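Homework-ish question, so no full write-ups if that breaks the rules, but can someone show me the predicted structure for this set?
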Amino acid sequence: MLHPFAVGNIDCFELPYLLPVVNRASADRNVTTSGNAMQPALLAPPLRSSLDARSPEFAENRDAMLKKLEEIGALLDEAELGGGAYHHERLAKRGKLPVRERIALALDPDSPFLEISPLAAYNSSYTIGGGAVIGIGIIAGVECVIFANDPTVLGGALTPYVGKKWMRALEIARDNRIPYVSFVESAGADLRRSGGGGSKKDGDEPTAGGARIDHFAETGRFFYEMIELSKLEIPTVCVAFGSSTAGGAYQPGMSDYNVVIKQQSKIFLAGPPLVKMATGEDSDDETLGGAQMHAEVSGLGEYLAEDEADSLRLCREIVSHLNWRKPGPEASLRADPPVLDPEELLGIIDPELRRPAEIRDVIGRVVDGSRFEEFKPRYGPTMVCGFASIHGYPVGILGNNGVIYPDSAEKAAHFIQLCNQIDTPLLFLQNLTGFIVGKDFEQAGMIKKGSQLINAVTNSEVPHLTVIVGASYGAGTYAMSGRAFNNRFTFIWPSAKIAVMGGKQIAGVMSIVRRGQAARKGEPFDEEADARIRAAVEEAQERGSVALEASGAISDDGIIDPRDTRTVLGMCLSVVRNKPVEGTDGYGVFRL
Amino acid sequence: MSFDTLLVANRGEIARRIIRSAHAMGIRCVAVYVDADVDAPFVRDADEAVRLDSGYLDGDAVLEAARATGAGAIHPGYGFLSENAGFARAVTAAGIAWVGPSPEAIEQMGDKIAAKALAEKAQVPTLPGSEDPGAADAVGYPLLVKAAAGGGGKGMRIVSEPGQLEESLAAARREALGGFGDDRVFLERYVSRARHIEIQILGDGHGEVVHLGERECSIQRRHQKILEESPSPRVDAALRDAMGEAALRLARELGYQSAGTVEFLLDDDSGEFFFLEVNTRLQVEHPVTEMVTGIDLVREQLRIAAGEPLGYGQSDIRFEGSAIEARLYAEDPSNDFLPAIGTLVAFAPAIDPPVRWDSGVVEGSVIGTDFDPMLAKVIAHAPTRSEAAGRLALALSRTHLGGVVTNRDFLVHTLRTPEFLAGDTTTDFIERVGPARRLEPGDAERTLLARVAALFVQACNRREARVWADMPSGWRNARLPDQKLVLEEGDSTETVQYHSLRDGRFRFPDGTTARVHEAGADAIDVEIGGRRVRARVRRAGDQLVVHGPHGDLTFTELPRFVLPGSEETEGGFVAKMPGKIIQLGVAFGDRVAAGDLFLVLEAMKMEHPMRATEAGVVREVRVAEGDQVEAGTLLLVVEPEASSD
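A: Not a homework solution, just the prediction itself:
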């Protein structure tokens, strides 16, 4: 010390202000993976990979998958445009927001959004996306299903695709008990369609072989479903962004809460032209069905918004007061990321589905810490069953390694019962070419065992999630909790193919039938023509079975990037917990 | 007269400072506090504390507190009771040691006119001046009107020509009466290129008096010091000796005991110095002397009060290096240094480079109008003056500070000016040199920090999520518009838009990407377009205080949704700072012309008139005389003439 009298403590500083201690775990929330190390994990060891990421097959598979994803990305860009730039400009001129902007504003900032069937109406004469956006998002901390008309597509008219999406949104709300939020702006029924049902010219309607199978009388189901939600104590919130005419008018009519927007909402059973036609009365939009009228006179609108943004503020306020509590247990297990690299999910599936995919390679890249406790691994090995967790939610997994044999079906039925016993949701990973056929297997009771499995799947009451990663052929599609089996969500990988059987098999079967017919009639069989027909059929079948076709028809909830599988399933496992997760108390008679 | 318990009759940083030295000497400390200070750090630092009903100036209550807690000594700090001879006398009469000079010395030096007479007697040069306002011409212009009982710039006015004299006299008297309860004023010659130099003295009551060199405190705003240093770049050894000798002559004349300061005005051109006054207390800026001499002045005061001899003489005093102190104030340099209030949302003094922090606040402290808005004193001590200035500037700019407008950026700019570094520091420094009043970030810098802030908010949103909290931020499986956050910084608006990428990065519309390495409750470590920013961030309400590479930017987060009817009132006049309405010049329906007086707001003992900016009619008056108003309070609404009938 230089100073003779430096005995005081003047050199000490204020209490040291420590540098901030940054919470690493919370930082990790920014990336796909996170995990609370404090939570207990399943004791099962991580799966080991059988995948050689350096093999040429892997590279081929990956390239093919990335190409498909690129194609899907381009289609999603197209779907984003809805009715096209011209209609968006018109919308903007009227100070209105595009449908996706409305949704984004309604959602909690930075929260994820799971869109359902974004590529509806693919390869149809309707606009891709189908004229409406549905999805599950977080509003004021509550998982809600959103149904939103896209006013740029035929003025939001109720086309068959809009109808199917609407029904799906209502179903998601009911099955999972989550609030239903609708952003209505619809010209009403698609008047271009004739009085009763669909016109034959338009092959895109849900018809089979040109048969007229939908009718105006059936569409009333929407109203029934909406009212039922309310009775089931699932709140319904409607924001009327524009015209809600005729059928559209009942959407606010059937909702628990309505938000109407000044100078914008127009809700009436009939607009001025139709009123003039019906009664001769002269009227205008505002007095007939304007927001102010409904808020002050008719009482249809509970909340009067200044503009679109204000209506979304009100919508968020409504959801925030719903006192929403999830009865299902929250994630309780350690949610650490898989040890195996999820990026490698791109290279597992052979695009032609000729080389068999090992389903454990998928499981190990989806579940927490790649941990998988396999059930009966040595019995019925083509049906891989086991316990794991995804984002901390326990789950029972059934995945195929090819054909279902009698023993694999029996094992699956057993496993489904176990998961119902312990209230654990089920994940089906479809990767199968159907039930085994042949003398030995028929004699071993394939039908009986297959029926046991279908019985167990049907009566199981824990939530089912299904992901079709590869082939999904024949009755296997149903047995593995396909769309027809009331599963909560079905997603497909770009590599998936769904059909009664493979294209080659169908073409071959039809060729054998033709050959037999020719033989019975004693006619010569035209080999050359047969080869042509076989090739054409195979091609047509292949085209019809691909993921995009299925998704375009809304026969699933959408195509997902394989790398998103864990995220999508985690969100779904959270959504299903808005309803108690409880296994069944009983099954039908098992044919033993 | 030894004691083991000391009552500290003060608040804020000086109370903490005194407690620190007393504790080091093994002395127990008692604090006194008023309701506004109930959560103040100095109360917590003390071993015991007593609440005062009527304020820090209530000597009887302080004495009572000392008796009740068995305090053997009272340290008055600076301000409040420190130069109250009556109180000092009462303390001594109560058998309690008074940490300060004798009541007689206080009395003599407290009267500026008597002090000047004594200085003349001790052959210390003084400035021409007069008690007689009529003698202004004899004193000569420019001149200063000063309160006889004053200090700290209150009740002080510069008069450059005879025409202004009357108005200045009136204002000075009013302020003097309000501030000191004594409206006597006097005149004094004003030196235009002056430096404020003061000599620290220390007397032990046993006949030993030493000086500890000078402090230069020339850099002032509103006649109050903001930067002080020792040694002065203008004072050489000869001048130091001359000024020190003059100070000691006066001290001996006074029989000075304890620490005191003899203030001089140094004519920068001629090198002449003139006696100004003696401060019979510890000065705010005492730390710079401590740093260069190594002598703990509070410790010396306590020893002297206990009757101990100094034990050293003038020849033992050594000066090492250079020390500079910056006073960190809650005030707005861009708005004429008017006091600011609010909650100190962010306050994290830099620990590197090492500087001394004497602060009275902590993060979360509420800065109100009750007391002087000084937050802290920051003192750098280095081998050379330029190093000390650089170190101080860096420490200040590395400090995370926000929630209240402060003079920090102004201090940093001042310390970095070539003029300051050249030692060209006269009392008109601020007007003459004009350092930037606030941090003026470039657009790129502002955009960068806005992005940092937005990503911080993003991390908070994800952390606070009740459902899907584990999912990737802003995850999409199809297309939705980008996330959007609108931030305001000063007059600029930054709209930050981004979406998340599969690999966890975020992408902005210009193609730049960002990766958040870590994000916690009060900091974020992020790489944006290759630039790594490790920033402390504090979020309080809609405010985001982001500490970037050059200091803090405070962004205001605009709400996603605007509540209908929340727009600003047209023609409304709002209080620019908190204060009291002491005069209301208009009533409902009055027709006003531009320049008419609306009202007078008193804040921090200063009067701030508010006048009409254009002709109009008063449509609303929301306040009455005597009202206490917050900054931003709507005071009145005026309909402009053009639009009224």
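Now go work out the reasoning yourself. Hint: Residues 100 and 258 of chain B are 5 Å apart (CA to CA).
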